[in-house]
Amino acid sequence: MGKITRIDVQKRNKERFNIYIDEVYAFSVNGELVYTEKLEVNGEVDEEKLHKIAFKENLSKCKNTALRIIERSYKTEMEIKEKLIEKGYDLESILPTVDFLKEYSFIDDKEYIKLYIKDRIRRQGSQKIKYALIRKGIDPNEIEDNLTNINKEQEKDVALELVKKKYSQLVNREKDIYKISSKLYRFLVGRGYDYTLAKDVIKKTMNMDDIEGID
């Protein structure tokens, strides 16, 4: 059991306080904890209370760190967890932080899927989008459900515009149409378009009846 003998406002951050126990610096906390934990001069603190304060302080820091991360760019639940682990927080603080973020809709994987697809479908195929979302920790079934809502004609139109631009670059330095078609195919597949769609838009762009054998 120890006694709080001093509580000093920090010089560089007026919202934080240095706590001294028995005239020795013990820890620093935010102003909210000073109030909620009733920290005051001559107040007594035991090991259990110190542990409770340390947990709440770390949780508060973890939440603030998470909010700063989200301010920079929207994240999935898995991405937030990974970022917080990188920052040195333990699961005891990370898990309630994630619950807090979800409760107040700071993170929402279902909404993230919709926004990600809407942004990427303008320049990528559904397969590339799918695997990118899987790497971000999104449930594959949720991804599939959202990808089925993609306008296939819109996806095809985007692929057609991409391949036309690529074709205009290739045709200036390559005369073999089969080499061109093969490069266009690899280009589209690399962008996440499936085999059938890739063949269709290449045939349309190059006015070819058959492009079998490309790989």
TrEMBL record:
Q: What is its main location?
A: cytoplasm
| Keyword Cytoplasm listed | yes
Subcellular location(s) of the protein: Cytoplasm
Question: Which controlled-vocabulary keywords does the entry list?
Answer: Cytoplasm
Residue stretches making up the RecX third three-helical domain: 155-202
GO biological processes? regulation of DNA repair
**What does the entry list under GO cellular component?**
cytoplasm
Q: Where is the RecX first three-helical domain?
A: 62-101
Cite the RecX second three-helical domain residue spans from the record: 108-145
- Member of which family? Belongs to the RecX family.
Name used for this protein in its record: Regulatory protein RecX
The species is: Clostridium vincentii
Species classification: Bacteria, Bacillati, Bacillota, Clostridia, Eubacteriales
